[in-house]
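Internal ticket #5521
Category: modeling
Description: The requester needs a full-assembly model to guide mutagenesis choices. All entity lines are attached below as received. Residue total reported by intake: 876.
Assigned to: D.W.
Attached entities:
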Amino acid sequence: MSELVKRPTLVPARPTSAESRAASLREVLAFALADEAYGFPLARVREILKLPPITPVPRAPRHVLGIVSVRGVITTVVDLRRLMRVEERPPEKHARILLVDVGGEVLGALVDEVLQVHRLAEDEVELAGVVGGDLSDHVIGVGRPRARRDQDQAGRELIVLLDPEPLFARLERG
Amino acid sequence: MSDLRDEFLSEAQEIVESLSRDLLLLDQAHKDGSSSQDLVNEVFRAVHTLKGIAGMFGYARLGEVAHALEDLLDDLRLGRQNLTTELLDVLFEGVEVFQRLLAESPDAEVSEVDIVAFLEQLTSVGASRPPVEDALAAYAIDASVLAVLTEYEEHRLRTNVAKGVGLYRLKVRFSLATIDTQLEDLKARAKSIAEIITYLPSASGGDGDAIDLDVLLASSATPATLEDVLGGEGAVLERLTRGTSPVAPVRATEHHALVPPPPVRTPPRPTSAPPAPRMPSEPPLAKREVTADQLSLRSVAHTVRVDIRKLDHLMNVVGELAIVRTAVMRLTEKLRGRPELRQLAIDLHRINRGFERHLEELQDGILDVRMVPLGQTFDRLARIVRQVAREHDKEVALVVTGAETEIDKLIVEELSDPLMHLIRNAIDHGIEPPKTRELAGKPPGGTLVLNAYQKGNHVVIEIEDDGAGINPQVLIETAIRRGIVSEEAAADMGRDEALQLIFLPGFSTRLRASDLSGRGVGMDVVKTNIGRLGGVIDVQSEVGTGTKLTITLPVTLAIISALLVRVAEREYALPITAVQEAIVFDPKRVRRVEGREVVTLRGETLTICRLDELFRVQSKARGRRYLVVVAVGQKRMGLVVDGLEGQQDIVIKALGKSLSRVRGISGATDLGDQRVALVLDAPGLLDEVLSSPERALHEGRR
């Protein structure tokens, strides 16, 4: 999508030794939510917006913050904090809305901060089945990007990889 | 590729629709016993074209059905088949088959449509009918002449016979030397008063220098006139009259035959006679068809088919331009405040006014393009009426008025299903069987009236039957039995209120599910669908007299005039068509009646709804508030709002799927400056507020 103009600047410049490995990489857009790092598959993120004025919708499902107009298209904005059941807090300076393609509808997801795009190799991802435990169905797995020479590892080495469909399906249930 | 396919689909759809219209006319003509040859030709041509384009776009099954129907129609056209009710049934069924086939992908592995069964049905109708008793046989036309007529000549002959046009045989003797010019001269003279069907060398032959021609003519002119124009040396005019089996009514003028009727059949000529050389007098059939197709192509060239989404997009752009206009206007106001820029501000203002005018024209133009007459939908309904009436052995006459009333294409699309359901209901539940009707002193055939007219910015569609009507007492009893209302509530129920029960979910007065109306789609669904289009449905009924359903719809959903109101610091748009008036709200005049807040406005009780409470938003506004009187159809209520922000044209945009179930909101609109206002769903709110005690009870019982 042409809207994702910011994508190139988000991808860290990194010497790729083997092009063949690209196929097994997972491109993930990482973002912060209540001091945790999460990620959506990059291919599903259409655009990143600074916070426009949001119009609340009375009697909408609880997770819905309201609607915004994205160049004339009315888009529903979801408070990801509420949806993920973490402590609510009014959006701050770095807050952004990710426009996520959720099978048939583009939804806006309010996040605390956009971090970066990670390209994860197969051995940098633990799938939910392997991790085990009571992970919700919207968690694909956990990514552990290795430290790289050209970037600063600020302690956020665990990214919870989210599957948009089951996550936003909660909207339907209210 | 998919563009081409879309193109095909819309063209095929148009052909099928016109086919359907012509079939209805044909059905009518068949009932009246009037001539229908032109219609049969129209129908034949439509199926022929459909066959052609289906082949081009790979709709093989559609092509196959069209081909089989074309054969049947060809027989009909050339008189090898009689037009019967059974045959009409098959033709109507053909329309259904076409529509179902068009709904499917041509590449679908498995098809829902059983064309084999239909083709068998076609074959059996085609075979079971003995060829028509030959109307021409009744005329004194030489069998040898009939035998050499081209298909087209024979068709023209039959057409004229069917229309009751007189047939004549002119025997003329032409000199072989001058036959060409003499023949041309005769044709020219005949042109204005007669149609020359064919001319053949006469059986009586001629002599060495001359040839006798038999000219077969059809003419409505009197024999005396014909004699005047065509008669002359060596010319003998003879009227061909019918024998004992008249096909079309004999007209009075036909008694002035020149010659008394000859014997019914002239004995066939000996078979040894050499076949007469054919001299075609008209272009052959195939050639004529090409001309007809070219004609229709030319007329189509002036119109363009447009995907409605493209119009939506254009309307969106107009909306964005309106926002630009507002911004320019604001800037102009700012400039006005600077004395040194005053002249600039005035110029800019004038330019902006021009821009505004053109923008309005553009908007009206786009709206106009979206409008289609309701007639298309009504034609489809007429077919349903015929089919359902036959299935039920009921006689139903459909009377349609206002088919030319125009409405937004998108609304029309969504209207078909609800209307179809209402029509089925009216015939199935409303109109009684002929015997019952006669006992009640009514004519055995029922009447279904379909009226459409524009009323302000709304289109009203009425569906009225003269059937049994709805008994409110029965409705109330059923509702109590189903637990939809309590007995106490039922006791207070007025007649109109009781009739409204039919719109509640899970309500059906019929115990056994009818194969027609009881397909799990009830009046509640009809009401919901119409509500989604911003419309309302009302019912009136008189036991024994009939039922009338009235649907009120906005003309368009694309752009509307709206009143902007403010509630709890937020703006909401209220379609102006639903607003009757706005007055200052006086809280002291509010009284409580049966759990509702009401005020009395000019002697009438008005239920009020405080929007901030309904929407659970805290209004901090102190001071003056307003009461907006909202009315749709027969329903009225007062909405209490914090402020009125003026009137504005808005483009309504749908909310995302995730918010489609939010009640009371029908969409949103861009006001510019990144401001977005919600559009209030007036019919939905009226419904929610005015029926809340019932609904609450209903939901409580679940």
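Resolution: model delivered.
Comment from assignee: The interface with chain A takes residues 316, 319-320, 570, 614-617, 653-659, 662-665, 667-668, 670, 674-678 of chain B (CB under 8 Å).
Ticket closed.
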